[in-house]
Design goal:
Length: 314
C-alpha cells in the first residue's frame, strides 16, 4: 500500500474528501463510518470513478476503526452536524463522545499519523482529540481557517469582479461567529484592499457586509439545505492533507495549539500555520493592531467558554 489516508466519518464531508483525494491522486483511502454500509457504498461508488479520473488508488470502506492502522493522515469528520437554529457549540456534548471513541482508536492503531479534525465545535474538538490521543500538538490540527478564508476570498472576488485566485487573505480566531478577517493583510494581486477602497473599486460598507456574511454563511447554507456545508469544508481539508503529504510549507490558517503566541496559552484556535511534512511546523505571529487584537481575544474567549464545558465533560 502507498500513502494511506484514513477518513473517519464517511458522511457528507468524509465522502467528498474521498472523491477529492482521488481527483488529486493523493493516496489510498480508507473510509470508516459507524453507520453500516455507508463507507462501503461510498468507497465502491468512488472506486467506479477511478478509471475516469485516471487514478490508480485503492478506496475501501469499513465500519472497523482497526482499518486505520498505520495511516499517514487521518481526517476526522465523525459526529453530528448542526441543524437549523443550532450553533456549532450546541454539538459539544454529543461530538465529544464521538471524539473519545475515535481518539482511542487513533491512539491504539495509528499514533504516528497527522490528524486533521473537522468535527464541530472545531477548536474544542481538536483540543479534545489531541488530549485523548496524546499525539504531539504539531500533528493534531483543526480545519476551519482555510474554509473561513476561502469564503471571504470568494465573496470579495465576487464583489470586485476579479478572479478568486487573485485574492490573498487570512481569517483568525475560533471557527464561530467571532472569527476575525484580517482586512489589513488582504491583497488583490498584491494591491492592498485598503487601496481598492480608496480607488473606489469597492466600498468599506460592502467589505464590512462581506465580513459579517462569512460569519453567518455556514448557517445560511443550513437554512437552504437543512444540513451543514460539505463541499467547501471537504475541499479545505484536502488542501491541508495535500500540504502535509507534499511538504508544501504553505502558510495556512488552521486551528493550532498556542503556547503563548498571540498572548494565548493552552488552547487551540485559528492562526496562520506553516504546514509541511512535520505537521504544524511553525505558527506565524502577525503583529496585530489594538482593535484587531481585541477582536481576536474576544474570539479566543468564546472558544475558552466552550472548552471549559468540554473539560468538565471529559
Ligand atoms: N465513528 C465513526 N463514524 C461516526 C461516529 C463514530 N463514533 N459517529 C458518527 N459517525 C459518522 C456518522 O454515521 C456520519 O456518517 O459521522 C458521519 C458524519 O457525517 P454527516 O452527518 O454527513 O456530517 P458532515 O456534514 O459530514 O459533518 C461532519 O463536520 O463540519 C463538521 O459540523 C460538522 O460536526 C460535523 C462534522
Amino acid at each position: 500500500m502507498g500513502t494511506k489516508i484514513s477518513l473517519i466519518g464517511a458522511g457528507n464531508i468524509g465522502g467528498t474528501i474521498a472523491l477529492l483525494t482521488a481527483i488529486k491522486n493523493l493516496g489510498d483511502v480508507v473510509l470508516v463510518d459507524i453507520a453500516k454500509g455507508v463507507a462501503k457504498g461510498k468507497a465502491l461508488d468512488i472506486s467506479h470513478s477511478l478509471p475516469v479520473l485516471q487514478c490508480n488508488r485503492k478506496i475501501t470502506g469499513t465500519t472497523s476503526l482497526k482499518q486505520i492502522k498505520d495511516s499517514e493522515v487521518i481526517v476526522v469528520t465523525a459526529g453530528v452536524p448542526r441543524k437549523a437554529g443550532m450553533s456549532r457549540d450546541d454539538l459539544v456534548e454529543i461530538n465529544l463522545k464521538v471524539m473519545k471513541d475515535v481518539g482511542r482508536a487513533i491512539k491504539k492503531y495509528s499514533p504516528k499519523s497527522f490528524v486533521i479534525v473537522v468535527t464541530n465545535p472545531l477548536d474544542v474538538m481538536t483540543w479534545a482529540l489531541q488530549k485523548i490521543t496524546g499525539i504531539p500538538h504539531s500533528h493534531v490540527v483543526g480545519m476551519a481557517g482555510v474554509l473561513d478564508t476561502s469564503r471571504f476570498k470568494f465573496h470579495l472576488a465576487e464583489a470586485l469582479g476579479f478572479s478568486v485566485q487573485d485574492v490573498s487573505s487570512s481569517v483568525l480566531g475560533g471557527h464561530g461567529d467571532d472569527m476575525v478577517a484580517l482586512l489589513r493583510h488582504t491583497t488583490i494581486s498584491g494591491i492592498p484592499l485598503e487601496d481598492m477602497i480608496k480607488m473606489k473599486k469597492i466600498t468599506r460598507q460592502k467589505v464590512n457586509e462581506i465580513v459579517k456574511r462569512i460569519r453567518t454563511c455556514g448557517g445560511e447554507i443550513i437554512t437552504y439545505m437543512g444540513t451543514s456545508a460539505y463541499y467547501s469544508p471537504a475541499a479545505s481539508a484536502v488542501e491541508m492533507v495535500e500540504c502535509y503529504l507534499r511538504d508544501q510549507k504553505k502558510i495556512i490558517p488552521c486551528s493550532a495549539y498556542l503556547r503563548g503566541q498571540y498572548g494565548v496559552k493552552g488552547i487551540y484556535v485559528g492562526v496562520p500555520v506553516v504546514l509541511g511534512a512535520n505537521g504544524a511546523e511553525k505558527i506565524v505571529e502577525i503583529n496585530l493592531k489594538k482593535d484587531e487584537k481585541k477582536e481576536f481575544i474576544k474570539s479566543v474567549n468564546s472558544v475558552s467558554d466552550v472548552l471549559k464545558v468540554a473539560k468538565k465533560l471529559i
